[in-house]
User: Fold this.
Amino acid sequence: DAKTTQPPSMDCAEGRAANLPCNHSTISGNEYVYWYRQIHSQGPQYIIHGLKNNETNEMASLIITEDRKSSTLILPHATLRDTAVYYCIVRVGNSGGYQKVTFGIGTKLQVIP
Amino acid sequence: DTGVSQNPRHKITKRGQNVTFRCDPISEHNRLYWYRQTLGQGPEFLTYFQNEAQLEKSRLLSDRFSAERPKGSFSTLEIQRTEQGDSAMYLCATLGGGVSTNEKLFFGSGTQLSVL
Assistant:
């Protein structure tokens, strides 16, 4: 899997948009960008993923640059419950078979009241 | 609740004892991962099963560690002769078996191991 680079920490005011960047300059053409988050003492939780088009779901939006070398996860109206560590990973999303999935240290997002 | 169940949630043991953790995956998921996570770090890959076959093991998985997945259902991770450095959160995650662009890892809540 390609490596990703994320800032170790970020702050965001409650009610504002949180924009979490991720660099994945060595991403391959068949690799998707996935985002997970981990709230303290729980397992990581899937948020969203995409290949090259921007994606939106009930939790967040994902913006992927045209060259696919970076992406941004957007939480449109951050709440205190969004305080968590956010992981960006890249992996083949349609393999049906084995692939190693590796995590970096992620970005610790602190939402401030 | 993701549908992946891990037991126990917490385990405190003395150095030198053996411990075993269990993961019950989502029933139709044939791919299963074990990870270890220490404070301030992301999950580190330990091992992977596809059905009952253990296809990859990390070098982190010393000979004191063994994992099984009999009949491709639940999985167990055993640590023999525990050391204080084994203290960590042990996470289980599963992937569905179909070929799909929506493959997502589903994680359990983990087992927090403390070795005294």
